Amino acid sequence: MSETLKRTRRYVLAERPVAPTGPLQEGVLRYEDDVPVPQLEAGQVLVKVEWMSLDPATRSWMNDTPSSLPPSPLGETMRALGAGTVSASEHPDFAVGEQVCGLLGWQEDAVVDGSILRRVPEGVPLNASLNVLGIAGQTAWLGLHDIGRPRKGETVVVTAAAGGVGSIAVQLAAAAGARVIGVAGTPAKCDWVREIGADDCINYREDDVSAACSRLCPDGIDVIFDNVGGAMLDALLPHVAVNARVVLCGAISRHESGHGPVPLDNWFHLLVNRVRMEGFIYMDHEARFDEIEADLLPRLRNGELRSREHVVEGLTAAPAALHTLFDGTNTGKLLVRVGQS
Ligand SMILES: NC(=O)c1ccc[n+]([C@@H]2O[C@H](COP(=O)([O-])OP(=O)(O)OC[C@H]3O[C@@H](n4cnc5c(N)ncnc54)[C@H](OP(=O)(O)O)[C@@H]3O)[C@@H](O)[C@H]2O)c1
């Protein structure tokens, strides 16, 4: 890395958060607005980052404990998925002007090894590569196809059903012929969950989830697609049907302020009902992303798969936006439109 081409802006992870969950203290992220972009080496690509994904995992990667990936290294650009356009390339597979996505980080220009990039299909908006065709769609698809496996007529409950992953899981389960019940945190979110194909939706902030399940799932739940964990998961477990599958996709309730470990009181229902409960990390299945895209892309193109995006403008809006995932004020896949701010 010798001479520099241009300057860029980025956020560096400067120190670890004092608490593993909750709002970030001042100083965790350091904004740098005049950073030299290194000259490309063989195999590298320079990407103009246009979109960045904020995910619950982003907060976990700031901590000093391993989660879906090892901690984001201190002193380096904060890790994030992003999408953008190739502005220079020393990699034989990528040409200037092509649209790509991958772990590009919290920055406006990313120099990355071409091997970590994925090409965005022709005609697909870049933001979709972080949403229906990206982390949200891939995660929903893998959790449902590999673990949930809903059959026609079965009952599927999806938690955080109005969010990025949850809303795709609702639609894929409904498309498989299942009866789908969503769980979400506001009447407006529940309306959206019904609009995209759920038979009903429980507003967990107003209704008792267990009582609602007794009413809405009289024959039991065949698949729980759980994004929340903790007390929510525990409230669902007494309703599992024989041979049910519990997809452990996320545990976003862990991020509640002052949250400690929550015991699962109702685990015995897993045993007596011969239930399979399994977690997964979508990144482990990169080799299958083409297969997943082949299924999701036509459904995206023909309008069968719908999504909402919660877009915040500019890289500098990202630190404050992250917490909306945990207080529920995001309305759809949380994305940052990176650019001058
Ligand atoms: N396994 C994997 O590989 C993988 C990959 C990506 C994401 N995930 C997981 O998928 C889940 C959804 O991620 P996403 O990016 O699509 O986020 P999202 O669902 O768009 O946003 C998070 C939503 O979670 C709900 N929520 C937050 N705290 C809650 C609580 N204490 N109880 C109930 N609901 C709560 C909020 O909606 P309400 O207003 O409805 O409360 C919030 O809007 C997360 O758990 C994430 O960790 C897993």
TrEMBL record:
SUPFAM superfamilies: GroES-like, NAD(P)-binding Rossmann-fold domains
Keyword Ribonucleoprotein assigned: no
Assigned keywords, A-Z: Oxidoreductase
InterPro entries the UniProt entry points to: ADH-like_C, ADH_N_2, ER, GroES-like_sf, MDR_fam, NAD(P)-bd_dom_sf
Domain Enoyl reductase (ER): 27-336
Presence of keyword Oxidoreductase: yes
GO molecular function, a single term: oxidoreductase activity, acting on the CH-CH group of donors, NAD or NADP as acceptor
Annotated protein name in UniProt: NADP-dependent oxidoreductase
